[in-house]
Fold this sequence. Notes:
- The structure is a single chain.
- With 374 residues, this protein is an alpha/beta fold.
- It has two domains: 5-132 and 325-373, NAD(P)-binding Rossmann-like Domain (Rossmann fold, 3-Layer(aba) Sandwich), CATH 3.40.50; 136-319.
- Helices cover 44% and strands 22% of the residues.
- The protein has 16 helices and 15 strands.
- It has helices at 15-27, 41-45, 61-69, 81-84, 86-95, 106-123, 136-146, 169-179, 182-195, 225-235, 254-270, 274-282, 292-296, 325-340, 352-355, 358-366, and strands at 5-10, 34-38, 53-55, 71-76, 98-100, 126-128, 155-164, 203-207, 212-213, 217-220, 242-251, 299-308, 311-319, 348-350, 370-373.
- The strands form two sheets. Strands 7, 8, 9, 10, 11, 12, 13 and 15 form an eight-stranded mixed sheet that branches. It has a seven-stranded parallel sheet with strand order 3-2-1-4-5-6-14, sandwiched between helices.
Amino acid sequence: MDRPYDIVLFGASGFTGALTAAYLARAAGSGTRWALAGRDRAKLERLGLDVPILLADATDPAALADLARQTRVLVTTVGPYVRYGEPLVAACADAGTHYLDLTGESEFVDRTYLRHHDRAARSGAKLVHACGFDSIPWDLGVLYTVTHLPEDAPLKVSGFIRAHGRPSGGTLASAMSVLGRARQAAEAGTQRRSAEPRPKGRRISSLPGGLRYVGGWALPMPTIDHRIVGYSARLLDRYGPDFTYRQHYAVKTLPEALATVAGAGAFTALAQLPPVRDWIQGRLKPGEGPSPERRAKSWFKVTFLGEGGGERVVTEVAGGDPGYDETAKMLAESALCLAFDDVPARAGQLTTAAAMGQPLIDRLHAAGLTFTTR
């Protein structure tokens, strides 16, 4: 509390950053001490918010260190994170400042674990990645499901998503970065698996899932989300002695399934070619994104099937526009949760389930996301 700010939002002039800033302006109470930060004062002033503005560049470690020392929670929307994110993580780990981002980049998450987890654990900083649509619905949805199943029993959970939305330029840039760095991501993942302690006496399996028919077609979903869920399961004994998670993208018809697989394969292949990657990124520039009207028509629903201890449960996490309106809500509520709620005392690189858990579920439910049991 001796720091001047409770929350600082870094990168608020970008598309998602501006939505997050607007949400904080509505949701933060009058007693919340918060500020915007970035490298361009004029762009931040154009947001029209009556809060302090702090100047720092993502490539200036000294400025980022000063920024981290001024706040209890530092939130960043500046990506691609593998390119711009690590100096800010390092600054927060050194300063004992809680850190939140929106990354879906597994390489970045693994490298920051290897380089900064131990120091953050010593300083008391919580480093929490993937605090938006990547990966809150999955991470907290599985936690919610697990709490409706018996304790100390082998548990199996499967997740299935249906969604409708459109990417922004920043999201597209991050996706291209991930797909273009598959080899580096694999190397970072191998190094982390060698360094990260395994839970003693417990087995955890978390994978993208396989092709299934469950009243519709369920396709493998090889995003970062299942890895985040697996890390939560390793950190939290509540997931039981033998936990299995599989994640899927759900479509209704076989032609839709075939088209989805073909499109994803073609997009991945093209992303390996630098000229094509640059052309794709140029179609939607950072700072650009879907209109309010388009976002109002977007939605997501994640259904979880959980089994264990002789019981079965079906749960659902649902909301509006997944990539932007709801992501801004998730990120801002995560910051408010870390700043003001009674959360677990653990530190280091964590997940939303391990760092905040039920208090964040309660916040998001009150803010309009639904967590329901069928």
